[in-house]
Amino acid sequence: MFKGVVTDVFFDLDHTLWDFEKNSYLTFEKILAENGIDVDLNSFLEIYVPLNLSFWKLYREEKISKTELRYQRLKTVFDRLDYFIADETIDLLANEYIRHLCTFDHVFPNTTEILEYLSPNYKLHIITNGFQEIQEKKLENSNIRGYFDQVVNSEMAGVKKPNPIIFELALERAGATPQKSLMIGDSLEADIMGAQAVGFHALHFNAHNEPYHEYCQIITDLSEIKTFL
């Protein structure tokens, strides 16, 4: 579908290539145990996972700061579990979470295979809203950094997806045009609609089992990218 049209493929990182939920699970398993936090991990994550997505949406929309995101997503979970925890401990856990998260290296099935498949014929890049200090570590520790030419993050751009500025910066750094660029990501709002507003082609990796839509083609396994490129 995009063969002969696309020269540059831009990926989101978290929830698209890097298995955020699995790595997050392992991180919480480690830091809650090490800090003697006596909560059921599955009950904790049942609240945390959707809550984290909602707080990231607020962060994308500039309604909360990075500091507030890191604190509130934990404080709210403990409140809902009716588990008293001091603010100092929340701050400690927030810092420990960031420190350990990027040490886990799980990627989605077929990530390396599809990057191997694409890299001989396309320039590959990353556009991420993740924090600059850990995104590079995630790529390095997962052994996929070498596949990517440009890695553009929201702190570098000064704005977050879906703001057009971050997509325009990525195009500029990649030396690409939107008409010959494809964005692949898990967020319909941030990745797909954001990229399409700038003129990118788009492919939605539906990692969250979202309802069907007609904004672009949808895939549920990264190996399906071969159908389009």
Automatic annotation (TrEMBL):
It comes from Meishania litoralis. Keywords: Hydrolase. Its EC number is 3.1.3.5. This is YjjG family noncanonical pyrimidine nucleotidase.
